[in-house]
Amino acid sequence: MVGIALAVNQIKDMFAVVMLAGIYGLVSASFFVAMDAVDVAFTEASVGAGISTLLMLTTVAMTGRTEHEASHKPLLALILVAITGGLLIYGTFDMPYFGSADAAVHNHVAPRYIYDSMKEIGVPNMVTSVLASYRGFDTFGEVTVIFTAGIGVLALLSVAQRPKDDAAIEAINDSMHEKHLILRVAIKTMIPFILLYAFYVQFHGDYGPGGGFQAGVIFAAAIIMYAMLFGLSAARRVITQPFVQLLSALGVLLYGSVGVVSMINGGSFLDYSVLAADPIAGQHLGILIIELGVGLTVASVMIIIFFSFSARREYQQANKGASL
Amino acid sequence: MLVHLPILQVIVPLIAAPACLILRRPKLVWLFALFASSLAFIISILLLQQVMTAGTISYELGGWSPPWGIEYRIDKLNAFIALIISGISTVVLLAAQTSIEKEIPKDKQPLFYILYLLSLSGMLGIVTTGDAFNVFVFLEISSLSAYSLIALGKDRRALWASFQYLIMGTIGATFILIGIGLMYQMTGTLNMADLAVRLPEVAETRTITTAYVFFIVGVCLKLALFPLHFWLPNAYAYAPSIVTAFFAATSTKVAAYLLIRFTFSIFGISFSFTTLPIETMFLVMGLLGIFIASTVAIYQDNIKHVFAYSSVAQVGYMIVGFSLSTPAGLTAMLLHMFNHALMKGALFMALVAIMYRVGSSKINDLQGLGRQMPLTVAAIVVGGLSLIGVPLTVGFVSKWYLVVAAIEKGWWWLAGLVLLGSLLAVIYVWRIVETAYFKAPILGQQPVKEAPMAILVPVWLLVSANVYFGIDTRFSVEIAASAAKSLFGVAQ
Question: What is the mean predicted confidence (pLDDT) over A208-231?
């Protein structure tokens, strides 16, 4: 991991940097697996190695491949980084040893999550219990963060008018397609399986690693790959921009309304136990719905970001074509 | 519904935000956002009443008792700050539709309101929560929306300003997260009240010292405390005017709140003020901030820059109050947070009016504006007087309590320095007033009309609040003093 980080720092070719960043994500995912944190690893694999590589590639396509020479001397920054790093290492001196049984983390809050979550929530994957129920409000916050990111990108990048010269774009798309015939066929056969896998991850989150975040990202990745190889307008015919925006809002609203319903039923916000007559069934129902909300928002925001990026690029190219 | 007030405070604007996306029509979205913000304001008033009469309120999210679940904990301190935030947000929103019509393209207006509401709920979430990690989650919501709001500015430099803020803000947030992570590692809990109980056992470790340092540096970045303020002036100057009015009055208050909350309620006074030389450090930074930023403000030719640097200086006053580490000093700080929100709210709202009519906030473009927009310029005068600290305005109240707190500690020289700082404010305010009243309009420039009522009403609401709370100090002083006393654990 250190090696990759150094390489990212040195290489000037952005395409290579993006690929290395993807590899870095994958390596850290395996690192998390080695630490027995499969849920985190799964997220890192789908987000760090998967979708963010795709998005960065789109950015590189817009900005160009090579890095500009830095004009300033980064000495001060280096000193600051050294101080920060030194302080972090200083902080590790009094930390409990890795895996030590009497570390505070293992003795205070965690035991209840480990021993009682099956009884209280009835979900075998205790990470899901913590994420979706014990600390469900944090997850609500995180979904809102993702929603905010989507809206932010829309507010800054969305192009108001469609480029005038549709034919030029079609031409660009077509020229790209002929070059990538093999990829197109391969992706076309893979997409149904990716989508199916996304649904599996979505609804299997209670039992194994997975859940709304990962599923949403995987689902979005399938759509984005389609758009990359078949052109934005083809993908837009399947999923229109207003429709994804609506979905992203619906995901947050779905999550929020679970909370509101539990308040109306006499519990506190996001108390799933009051959603059904039997508390365990209520917890199941609540987690199912909020995971669905998470998945909806994550998938649609990823698609929004990609659409906005590449619509911008299309616009750039069309203008360039017109000026030539 | 009364028991749910703590959570409703945050989720009303939070759920209203995505709902805006469904409404779509800008005017409708504006009314809806205004409604949500007013509702949050009413809730914060009710909460403050409850807290003042019945004491701290705890609300268990998801029905899980803390420290296993997330707890919302409302005491005098955060009820007070939530009141400031939601109040300012509501008043500022009154003028939003009129102002952004000239500054933001129509198709982006609904998105503007969504981001505004998200930013509001992010700030309210940071303030009301009783859980350290939850603070971080809402910090992300408020920061992400803030970056996008600032980048919406018409001036292309807004993008660069927002990017700078993004980098600095992200570093700040990461430092805060590192601090919280290290605290969790040593105590095994994220609940603030629980942390306060469990931290003293491990307080002597280097890990906790590191956690504290990271947390404080992160918060100071967000607070724009000198010398970590570089992102602020441009972010305020190039953002849409209405956004500046909202953030200038609220966002540094949130960071100041975090500083108080973690220093007093979580790490505890004995740790915070004995382990590290934090008092001296804050005193020096605060004073440097007051003098350097005020001096820089004098030389700016964009009024937004003037007031932005003045904000950095005002943060200095708050931090000086904080560094006294006495109940009186903390009272002065809290009072100044409330009062500064009113001053900067009023001043930047007046600039919203000027941007609407003149389309520029350069000092030179103000020449002769005193006759053309008498009410707006008068608002700047009153706000400016308040900034200086003239009696009968809120500015005087803050300075008075700060000076008294300094004298109480026997630091006469500090009292003198605080008054000297006000003199610098006289200079930069006078430059604006002089240009507006005593310089003839530039030849050939079209005379402009007074700003529309939609902007004037909120401007003068804030201006009269400056005067009202400057004369009748019972409300603000009582809350600030009793919040400060309870943070110091003094019996009332």
Answer: 84
Same domain for A131 and A61, yes or no, is no
Residue in chain A closest to B110 (alpha carbons) equals A155
Distances in whole angstroms, Cα of residue A138 to Cα of each of A204, A216, A263, B133: 21, 18, 17, 8
- pLDDT of B67 reads 83
Interatomic CA distance for residues B375 and B456, integer angstroms: 8
Amino acid identity of A22?
Answer: G
Nearest to A249 among B21, B144, B210 (CB): B21
pLDDT, tens only, A57-82: 888 877 777 766 666 667 888 888 88
| 8 Å CB contact between B221 and B168 | yes
Question: How much is the pLDDT for A88?
Answer: 84
d(CA A280, CA A283): 5
- Closest residue to A87, CB basis, from B62, B184, B213: B213
Per-residue confidence (pLDDT) for residue B348, from 0 to 100: 93
- Tell me if A173 is assigned to some domain: yes
pLDDT range class, residue A170, cuts 50, 70, 90: low
- Judgement on whether residues A32 and A152 belong to the same structural domain of the protein: no
- What mean pLDDT do residues A29-40 have? 86
Block residue for tokens 């150094």: A6
- pLDDT over 90 at A100, yes or no: no
**Residue among B70, B205, B208 minimizing CB distance to A135:** B70
The residue that leads in pLDDT, B56 or A102, is B56
Residues B172, B222: contact at Cβ < 8 Å?
yes
The answer to whether residues A200 and A278 belong to one domain is yes
| Domain that includes residue A48, residue range | 1-65
Q: With CB atoms and an 8 Å threshold, state whether B14 touches A144.
A: yes
The reply to whether A136 and A28 lie within a common domain is: no
Same domain, A131 and A57: no
Q: H helices of chain A, where?
A: 2-10, 14-34, 38-43, 52-63, 75-92, 104-107, 110-120, 126-129, 136-157, 166-179, 181-204, 212-230, 232-238, 241-264, 279-323
For residue A324, what pLDDT is reported?
A: 46
Q: From the candidates A137, A290, A300, A308, which should be mutated to test the interface with B, based on the most B CB atoms within 10 A?
A: A137
CB contact under 8 A, B61 and A136: yes
Domain boundary among A14, A48, A65: A65
Would you say residue A226 lies in a domain? yes
B207 and A138 within 8 Å at the Cβ level: the answer is no
Predicted confidence at residue A115, as pLDDT, reads: 81
When divided into structural domains, chain A yields a total of: 2
Q: Which residue do the tokens 């030719």 mark? A: B301
Using CA atoms, how far residue B396 sits from B163, B392, B402, B408, in Å, is 36, 7, 10, 18
Q: Give the one of A145, A270, A272 whose C-beta lies nearest to B137's C-beta.
A: A145
Q: Read off the pTM.
A: 0.92
Same domain, A34 and A164: no
Domain end point (choices A19, A38, A65): A65
A216 lies in some domain: yes
Residues A137 and A40 both lie in one domain: no
- Spell out, as residue ranges, where chain B has pLDDT lower than 70: 1, 443-444, 490-492
In a domain, A249, yes or no: yes
Check residue A73 and give its pLDDT.
66
Q: Is there a single domain that holds both residue A145 and residue A241? A: yes
Local structure of residue B65 (DSSP, 8 states): P
Residues of A whose CB is below 8 A from B154: none
Where does the pLDDT of residue A105 fall: very low under 50, low under 70, confident under 90, or very high at 90 and above? confident
